[in-house]
Amino acid sequence: MNRWLIENGTLVTMDPAAPIVHGWLAVEGSAIAGMGAGEAPEEEKRKARETVNGKGLLFLPGLVNTHGHAAMSLLRGLADDLALQDWLENHMWPMEAKFTGDDVYWGSSLAAAEMILSGTTTFVDMYDHMDRVAQVVEASGLRASLTRGVIGLCPPDVQTAKLNDAIQFARDWHGKADGRIQAMMSPHAPYTCPPDYIERIVAAAHELGLPLHTHMSESAAEVAQNVKDYGVRPVEHLDRLGLFSRPALVAHAVHLTDEEIALLAERGVAVSHNPVSNLKLASGVARVPDLLRAGVTVSLGTDSAASNNNLDLFEEIRLAALLHKGVSGDPTAVPAAEALRMGTVYGAKSIGLEGQVGMLKPGMKADLIAVSIAKPHFVPATDYVSHLVYAASGADVAHVWVDGKQLLRDRELLTLDIERIRFEAQRSFERLRG
Amino acid sequence: MNRWLIENGTLVTMDPAAPIVHGWLAVEGSAIAGMGAGEAPEEEKRKARETVNGKGLLFLPGLVNTHGHAAMSLLRGLADDLALQDWLENHMWPMEAKFTGDDVYWGSSLAAAEMILSGTTTFVDMYDHMDRVAQVVEASGLRASLTRGVIGLCPPDVQTAKLNDAIQFARDWHGKADGRIQAMMSPHAPYTCPPDYIERIVAAAHELGLPLHTHMSESAAEVAQNVKDYGVRPVEHLDRLGLFSRPALVAHAVHLTDEEIALLAERGVAVSHNPVSNLKLASGVARVPDLLRAGVTVSLGTDSAASNNNLDLFEEIRLAALLHKGVSGDPTAVPAAEALRMGTVYGAKSIGLEGQVGMLKPGMKADLIAVSIAKPHFVPATDYVSHLVYAASGADVAHVWVDGKQLLRDRELLTLDIERIRFEAQRSFERLRG
């Protein structure tokens, strides 16, 4: 099996047992085979077919983006500075209704290129035409948790067809692409799916043994509507419908009461915090310090490029560290190391990949990135975690590996044809705009 | 005089009369000599000694960073996640007390390199050893408003010596470096300068005909202390001391009442909004939409790299557009175009350079930057202002010119020796840390 070696690198491991290691890391096949401080042992050097000189590079686990809609990169910059419902109903949904499988393929390819170029190695994607997204994951070499998000505001036979589509996708793709693809089941949101439909989706998730993913409590208006329609707030509503009886990841969770936070913690529900999208759509500021204090696993998502408008997870990491300090008045809220965990370890945990990705440790998957620090904004060499969180950007990522395979080398994409993708994405957009 | 030409470019002019021009721009000496849509006239081509192919580039005015302390880049990552007073008194000031002129020179050089690499062409700097900062401005080719910030918590003779130093600096450097350097006068803050000392600084500013710059109302604690010490809030306090009798730029202005906003508008005081620094130090969120609505000129500053921790003004522009939507609940607050004006036109206006920089227009200074859009996060080609604000980063800047002279070419610094700067900055830091 292919064995290769990083020498002379600074490893930001995210492993509390050895957070920073100046030394070597060996990869065999898809896994980290060994690592240590100082010079690599002679045996490691002998076994390695290739060597990466780690001088001037920080190595860290690939970032995990736990909420998005990759294909919507086609809609970047189409409609900004609007409220959530107006933006969704009058701008996004009419365009998305016209999306073909090819549009989804090229939009997702565009997103995949951008994610690799900014250090994301695993992403969660909720959309339609998911077989085309899975093809992008397969081709790009990324790792992903994919789910056909279903909106149930339609006749029963259409609801059933959508659910069957989601089930079929999961059967076809779960565990595929050398195990890099996982499937999830997804009611789009409590306000877009009637209760009985959510129950059917939950039942299917039980049958398939899959986790659930949904949007929840993104805007205050949506929470008020839930109370009006169902007499309870979204957390209790979804809990009653069984959504938390399976491993579940909810996106946004901006508007929560203390009781809801306690219930999420009790049920082990993970939250994908999307600070840029929440600010841009004026949804509000999630209670992240309170969620973390309650023991909820909080990870980070970009949401789509239509409400962000990029997929650079370093920005979410930085904003998670900054925003909650400023809003709470507590300068120790979400310290740098915690923000970086949100983008790595907690991301992995929130989609069932704890112990597999999100950390540099022998036995774990070789999903890692190298950040070039030969730049003014990494000087002086003081606290690398601080620099990664407060000073770095995705553009500092030099190399990316997933499953031991290199996807980016000196910022050159090795698995994707970026010229073709830019051309096709632009063409899709122009056809959609009509 | 040297005349050169950009052909085939997309010009984001910031001029409301012609916001986006697909065409050409000619520079002669330090000024924009002409511009227009479509192909450049034959005469322009004939006159140009050099031509820049603008394909795949967005040209816009260089960014204006209206508050910072360049030399503090030496302290990047030294102390994070702390409250303002603790951070200042126990971490920053003890280190800064040891700064020599050489430290200021290399720290400011590091900042200059970072600013050029991220598209800033004009910056405001308040610090000590300002002659060394001026030397950096001279050598780097940047434009700057420089001011020796004085802290008056010291015996009268030291106060006088500091004020004389500030006056001498202004006499020596105002208008120097081919007019790229302007001087200002600066009491550091109302809480670090006794009232009579502020009055003496204001008197000196009148004598020299210079604008004033100060920190104001950054934290709630500081406002409460002002009320306790002087019976009024900082705006009224400074107004009584005459600070607003000259053109004035105040940094932060986070904690303001409606009355204070009205008074700032009435006095024509400009505000430098520093959103990243304000969040990181948990100072709070400035009332930017209210300030803009009242007619106050609000520009953007990074503050120092010690409380940011980078000098990428694109981040401030983006955060200005995002933060106030999320916090106010109004998704139309600070739209993209307004945020970009804050980083360009309003920046220029806030330091008396209106009509000279901050806009691409014949007759104005040739301070401009080129952003490379041949990247996934600029696809599809929809709204360039949206992409610049919501998707771009400083790392997308390919070329930079100030006063018609190129400072950055394909991300290569033409006026600064970055290897030497990194080495010297690291050495300064290690000596300071002791």
From TrEMBL, chains A, B:
<comment type="function">
    <text>Catalyzes the deamination of 5-methylthioadenosine and S-adenosyl-L-homocysteine into 5-methylthioinosine and S-inosyl-L-homocysteine, respectively. Is also able to deaminate adenosine.</text>
</comment>
<feature type="binding site">
    <location>
        <position position="67"/>
    </location>
    <ligand>
        <name>Zn(2+)</name>
    </ligand>
</feature>
<comment type="similarity">
    <text>Belongs to the metallo-dependent hydrolases superfamily. MTA/SAH deaminase family.</text>
</comment>
<feature type="binding site">
    <location>
        <position position="69"/>
    </location>
    <ligand>
        <name>Zn(2+)</name>
    </ligand>
</feature>
<feature type="binding site">
    <location>
        <position position="188"/>
    </location>
    <ligand>
        <name>substrate</name>
    </ligand>
</feature>
<feature type="binding site">
    <location>
        <position position="303"/>
    </location>
    <ligand>
        <name>Zn(2+)</name>
    </ligand>
</feature>
<feature type="binding site">
    <location>
        <position position="148"/>
    </location>
    <ligand>
        <name>substrate</name>
    </ligand>
</feature>
<keyword id="KW-0479">Metal-binding</keyword>
<dbReference type="InterPro" id="IPR023512">
    <property type="entry name" value="Deaminase_MtaD/DadD"/>
</dbReference>
<feature type="binding site">
    <location>
        <position position="215"/>
    </location>
    <ligand>
        <name>Zn(2+)</name>
    </ligand>
</feature>
<dbReference type="InterPro" id="IPR032466">
    <property type="entry name" value="Metal_Hydrolase"/>
</dbReference>
<dbReference type="InterPro" id="IPR050287">
    <property type="entry name" value="MTA/SAH_deaminase"/>
</dbReference>
<dbReference type="InterPro" id="IPR011059">
    <property type="entry name" value="Metal-dep_hydrolase_composite"/>
</dbReference>
<keyword id="KW-0378">Hydrolase</keyword>
<feature type="binding site">
    <location>
        <position position="96"/>
    </location>
    <ligand>
        <name>substrate</name>
    </ligand>
</feature>
<feature type="domain" description="Amidohydrolase-related">
    <location>
        <begin position="60"/>
        <end position="406"/>
    </location>
</feature>
<dbReference type="InterPro" id="IPR006680">
    <property type="entry name" value="Amidohydro-rel"/>
</dbReference>
<protein>
    <recommendedName>
        <fullName>5-methylthioadenosine/S-adenosylhomocysteine deaminase</fullName>
        <ecNumber>3.5.4.28</ecNumber>
        <ecNumber>3.5.4.31</ecNumber>
    </recommendedName>
</protein>
<feature type="binding site">
    <location>
        <position position="218"/>
    </location>
    <ligand>
        <name>substrate</name>
    </ligand>
</feature>
<dbReference type="GO" id="GO:0090614">
    <property type="term" value="F:5'-methylthioadenosine deaminase activity"/>
</dbReference>
<keyword id="KW-0862">Zinc</keyword>
<dbReference type="GO" id="GO:0046872">
    <property type="term" value="F:metal ion binding"/>
</dbReference>
<feature type="binding site">
    <location>
        <position position="303"/>
    </location>
    <ligand>
        <name>substrate</name>
    </ligand>
</feature>
<dbReference type="GO" id="GO:0050270">
    <property type="term" value="F:S-adenosylhomocysteine deaminase activity"/>
</dbReference>
<dbReference type="Pfam" id="PF01979">
    <property type="entry name" value="Amidohydro_1"/>
</dbReference>
